[in-house]
């Protein structure tokens, strides 16, 4: 407690009284006590001195009577002494040398208290003993002559022969009475002093504290707003000055109050006017907000319509261009058609960039959080754009640190988009040299990793004065670059906003004519399950490899990968040293890895390949050159495996462990043999003639019967007259649109349960949600991709129907959605969950029986993470409830009902998972053999 607060509890009057009285009372008590105690000791010393003056002469006078054994004479002596001091002496007694009573002045009933309790030879002088209200003095009686003592007195001391001792009882009542009188006198004196002090104190209180109290009262009134309160009367000294100051302060406050009231009145008037203006502004802002919302709605509708209007003709252009490639054409016609397709695809990419930018700007970009393999995803992305680097003769290198985890959670498509934008820009602005993608682990926790990706190029660089404009929309470093290289200028701003929305950071360093380094850091979740198959890399240990690659960056990255697998590598970066090693090598190599670079001509390349072929059973050629003729004529016939650079770590290991593999190159254009069509009846609906003809053509190659109609009303009529296996429905049509037609088909037709797939050019997320919420089962975007069309048909026609368990226990469609619609990945996730269930159930049961809170929390947390990717909604909900309760420190025993419910649900999940896996594994295997997946 604060001592200052304690002090403020007491008034000034109390403090004055305490500080004035306390010292006086304390000093008075101390002085009175001192003098009283001193008087007590003086009276006691006087009493002892009087007793000594009586007893010591008696001891000398009693020697004769004691020696002569004359009791009568001695008794008269004692009686006379007592009578002389009758008020002081109570009794006198003489004891002989045997400590026996010899004579007493008169009989005393307690004469025993007068007897000496110790040995007589210890009594050398007068001794004093206090007994109650009496004082006993004892003095030894010594013989003055050697022959005077009787024969039986044989006690000898240093003072002579001890004849006995005399004991006297002194009355202390008078002394005590004097002591009491002294104490009373001291008390009276102290009391008189306190009363005098009180008199002066109250006088002080009256002259000091009362005026101060009055001042406090007046100040309190002033504080309450009573500014007319004043102090009156004449005061002493400084109190009068304080009174004048308070009165002056009250006067000033009164003046200030009047002035302030005037200002308040004026401010109130101004405030009313301001509020009226604010109210008007609020109305204007409300109108502006409504106009902005309406503009945003119009913008969204414009984007949706623009997406539809642009994608609709592009759908026809791209689709028929791909169909035309399937027909017999000579080489120049094929080149023309591919140019048309590339141009349309580039235009589609520009449209997608504009739509992505609009969604990011509006905050409507929705990010997924799905498990994916990092190295495979990056490898697929780099493969798509590696052709641009090959066309310019650039060295494209991907370097992923060994400690970077491969199984992560996040939005794989957006990660690919970020890398595609950065690497694509690096290739675009680099005429010679290299482009390197380097990924490192920045930090890692139990559930998250932060990765840093650097895209380093040796391109034209960016001037420092132009770097501030780099991340602005619809702009590049300068207009000359825009004219030279083209582009919308949206790639970097989309990349920056994607990275920021995913919780990362992005930046760059650049120097003109030296190149640039664009980097970004990105947080990703750690996956609990392995994505994809694992390779037995231990089989590569101690394998001998002859490795030739003249380019420094590619050589360093591949060398590190080979060293990581504990292989024995012989490195070469020059043709002469390579040929020397091949000519002098005695033992064959397990593998020979040769780059296509550094050879002077095709003849040297072929001869080197033939020579290397004699030194190994597995010759791997690393190819990233643009000449397809050299690949077809010289490299493929003389190599066991041809890998396109940059090659991923997983792809290289797989080809070394299981050679030979299919060539990862662009195959020459051939006319594909039509596959067998499925016996299905499909309804296609589209109001655009070109798109309807395209989808009719594509479907006719895949199914036996296609019914094409150009309006929603006609689609409803067809649905009422016959059944279809699948319906492809356009959304934006005049009259009855696709959504209305779908509702009518669902309400009353022969195709209530037929899967209806939306075929639309709408790309806005809200439009997709509206489509899927209207009763349609799937979504196929325009331009229509033939592979995507095949996948949709296969997915909905061969969709399994499970009837032996509740969909809340295991929902296969949800499992597919959580696995990014990859059936093999969904099955792998389900298998891993199934394999972990026995151990999980045992651990939960043990933790429940032992009330082990940490183990229960850890197990439920892991199970919750696994259930998020396996389509088990009830298990996921129960895990979330139990985990939340455990994190709130709820006891395990209190959660027993929920835990037992979870154990029962896990039993159901195990049964359902076994059914799904057994039914789908064979189907997926057959589909893979038939090339459907």
Brief sketch in words of this structure:
The protein has 933 residues and is an alpha/beta fold. The model is unreliable at 477-484, 661-672 and 924-933 (pLDDT under 50).
- pLDDT average, as an integer? 78
Strand percent estimate: 15-25%
N-to-C CA distance: 78 Å
The biggest sheet, with number of strands, parallel, antiparallel or mixed sense and barrel status, is: 7 strands, mixed
The global form is elongated
Given as residue ranges, the uncertain stretches (5+ residues, pLDDT < 50) are: 477-484, 661-672, 924-933
- Determine the fraction of residues in helical runs and give it as a percent range: 40-55%
Going by helix content, strand content and strand pairing, the class is: alpha/beta
Cα-based radius of gyration, to the nearest Å = 57 Å
Number of H- or I-type helical stretches:
25
Q: Please, what is the oligomeric state?
A: single chain
DSSP strand tally:
23
Structure characterization notes:
With 933 residues, the protein is of the alpha/beta class. The strands form 4 sheets. Strands 7, 8, 9, 10, 11, 12 and 13 form a 7-stranded mixed beta sheet that branches. Strand 21 (726-730), helix 18 (738-747) and strand 22 form a beta-alpha-beta unit. Helix 4 (173-223) crosses helix 5 and helix 24 (873-887) packs across helix 25 (896-930). The model is unreliable at 477-484, 661-672 and 924-933 (pLDDT under 50).
């Amino acid at each position: 407690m604060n001592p200052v607060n304690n002090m403020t509890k007491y008034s000034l009057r109390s403090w004055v009284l305490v500080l004035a009285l306390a010292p006086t009372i304390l000093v008075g008590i101390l002085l009175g006590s001192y003098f009283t105690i001193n008087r007590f000791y003086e009276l006691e010393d006087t009493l002892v001195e009087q007793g000594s003056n009586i007893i010591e002469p008696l001891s000398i006078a009693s020697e004769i009577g004691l020696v002569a054994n004359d009791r009568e004479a001695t008794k008269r002596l004692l009686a006379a002494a007592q009578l002389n001091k009758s008020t002081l002496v109570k009794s006198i007694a003489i004891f002989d040398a045997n400590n026996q009573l010899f004579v007493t002045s008169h009989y005393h009933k307690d004469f025993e208290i007068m007897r000496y309790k110790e040995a007589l030879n210890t009594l050398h002088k007068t001794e004093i003993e206090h007994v109650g209200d009496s004082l006993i003095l004892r003095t030894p009686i010594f013989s003055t002559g050697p022959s005077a003592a009787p024969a039986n007195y044989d006690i000898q001391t240093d003072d002579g022969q001890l004849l006995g001792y005399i004991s006297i009882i002194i009355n202390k009542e008078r002394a005590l009475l004097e002591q009491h009188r002294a104490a009373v006198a001291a008390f009276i004196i102290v009391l008189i002093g306190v009363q005098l002090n009180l008199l002066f104190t109250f006088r002080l209180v009256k002259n000091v504290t009362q005026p101060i109290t009055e001042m406090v009262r007046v100040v309190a009134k002033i504080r309450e707003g009573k500014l007319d309160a004043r102090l009156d009367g004449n005061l002493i000294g400084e109190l009068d000055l304080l009174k004048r100051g308070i009165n002056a302060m009250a006067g000033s406050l009164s003046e200030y109050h009047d002035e302030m009231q005037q200002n308040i009145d004026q401010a109130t008037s101004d405030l009313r006017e301001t509020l009226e203006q604010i109210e008007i502004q609020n109305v204007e802002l409300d109108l502006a907000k409504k106009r902005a919302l309406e503009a945003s709605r119009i913008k969204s509708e414009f984007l949706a319509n623009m997406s539809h209007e642009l994608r609709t003709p592009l759908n026809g252009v791209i689709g028929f261009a791909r169909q035309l490639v399937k027909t017999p054409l000579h080489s120049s016609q094929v080149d023309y058609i591919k140019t048309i397709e590339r141009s349309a695809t580039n235009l589609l990419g520009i449209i997608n960039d504009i739509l992505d930018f609009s969604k990011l700007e509006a905050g409507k970009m929705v990010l997924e959080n799905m498990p994916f393999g990092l190295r495979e995803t990056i490898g697929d992305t780099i493969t798509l754009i590696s052709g641009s680097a090959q066309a310019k003769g650039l060295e494209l290198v991907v370097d992923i640190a060994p400690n970077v985890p491969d199984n992560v959670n996040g939005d794989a498509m957006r990660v690919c988009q970020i890398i595609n934008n950065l690497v694509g820009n690096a290739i675009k602005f680099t005429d010679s040299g290299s482009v390197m993608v380097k990924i490192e682990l920045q930090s890692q926790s139990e559930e998250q990793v932060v990765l840093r990706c650097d895209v380093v190029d040796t391109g034209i660089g960016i001037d420092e004065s132009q770097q501030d404009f780099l991340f602005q929309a619809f702009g590049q470093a300068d207009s000359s670059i825009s004219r030279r290289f083209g582009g919308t200028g949206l790639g970097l701003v989309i990349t920056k906003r994607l990275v920021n929305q995913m919780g990362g950071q992005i930046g760059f360093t650049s120097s003109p004519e030296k190149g640039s380094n664009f980097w970004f850091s990105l947080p990703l979740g750690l996956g609990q399950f392995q994505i994809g198959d694992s390779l037995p890399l231990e089989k590569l240990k101690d394998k001998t490899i002859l490795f030739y690659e003249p380019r420094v960056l590619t050589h360093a990255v591949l060398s590190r990968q080979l060293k990581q697998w504990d292989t024995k590598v012989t490195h070469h970066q020059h043709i002469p040293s390579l040929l020397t090693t091949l000519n002098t090598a005695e033992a064959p190599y397990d593998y020979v890895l040769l780059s296509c670079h550094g050879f002077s001509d095709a003849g040297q390349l072929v001869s080197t390949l033939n020579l290397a072929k004699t030194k190994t059973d597995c010759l791997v050629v690393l190819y990233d050159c643009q000449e397809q003729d050299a690949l077809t004529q010289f490299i493929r016939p003389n190599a066991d495996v041809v890998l396109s650079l940059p090659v991923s770590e997983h792809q290289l290991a797989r080809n070394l462990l299981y050679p030979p593999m299919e060539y990862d190159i662009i195959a020459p254009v051939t006319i594909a043999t039509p596959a067998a069509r499925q016996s299905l009846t499909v309804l296609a609906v589209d109001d655009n003639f070109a798109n309807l003809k395209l989808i009719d053509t594509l479907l006719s190659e895949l199914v036996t019967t296609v019914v094409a109609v150009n309006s929603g009303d006609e689609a409803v009529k067809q649905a009422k007259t016959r059944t279809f296996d699948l319906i492809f429905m356009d959304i934006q049509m005049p009259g009855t649109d696709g959504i209305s037609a779908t509702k009518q088909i669902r309400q009353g037709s022969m195709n209530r349960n037929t899967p209806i797939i939306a075929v639309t050019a709408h790309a806005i997320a809200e439009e997709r949600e509206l489509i899927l919420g209207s009763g349609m089962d799937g979504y196929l975007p325009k331009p229509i991709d033939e592979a995507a069309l095949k996948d949709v048909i296969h997915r909905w026609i061969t969709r399994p129907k499970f009837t032996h368990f509740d969909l809340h226990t295991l929902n296969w469609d949800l499992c597919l959605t959580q696995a990014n619609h990859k059936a093999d990945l969904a099955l792998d996730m389900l298998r891993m969950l199934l394999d972990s269930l026995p151990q999980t159930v045992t651990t939960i049961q043990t933790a429940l029986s032992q009330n082990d809170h940490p183990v229960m929390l850890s197990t439920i947390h892991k199970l919750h993470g696994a259930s998020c990717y396996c389509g088990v909604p009830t298990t996921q909900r129960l895990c979330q409830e139990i985990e939340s309760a455990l994190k709130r420190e709820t006891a395990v025993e209190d959660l027993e009902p929920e835990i037992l419910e979870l154990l029962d649900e896990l039993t159901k999940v195990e049964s359902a998972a076994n059914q799904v896996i057994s039914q789908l594994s064979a189907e997926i295997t057959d589909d893979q053999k038939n090339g459907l997946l």
